[in-house]
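Is it possible to get an amino acid sequence alongside its tokenized fold?
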Amino acid sequence: MCCTGKCARLVGLILLPTAFICMISNLLLFFPNGEKLRTNNITLQVWLMGGIIGGGLFMLCPSCSSIRAGGKGCCGKGCCGNRCRMLNSALSSVFGLLGSLYCSCVALAALVIGPKCEVDGEWKYPFEDMGMNNSSYLWNQNLWSECDNPKNIVTWHVALFSILLAMGLLQIVLCGIQVINGCIGCICGDCRDSNDLDSQL
């Protein structure tokens, strides 16, 4: 039998690093190719901060709550304490679902529209009308040379927003699992005995 508390702890321990990965990726997007750009030359989706807010800060609460659900918490020991922590982790994971959905949507939009870059002396989105069909810049790397400045902006944009999209989708799955797991733990309790609980944080 799989313990709901152990499952919650595992989910939390995976969610926590994904939150930091999202925040770091979003911060790097402000400095394409390591360059500092003027505010109005940075891609709009970077300013929406899906990685910092949605996949990052929004994810800290459910990750910590899930980790605590797998150990001793402020609700105390025993059946009631376990159920209280599991309910709290389930509710926090719903909050995390919203953040991860926001992160994923922003990242997907950024990949579809493409980066803002300098083309023939003008800053614009050269790929925004291509969509996701076979003519998209994502499938035709020969189009990437249209961006004159910053250097490697398309590679930077695609790589980091792909990371944000992957982390956002992973967070959606994990938060969904924890919502179900937390509800089961709240209703049925945790299968671990008191000795197992005492060995946790």
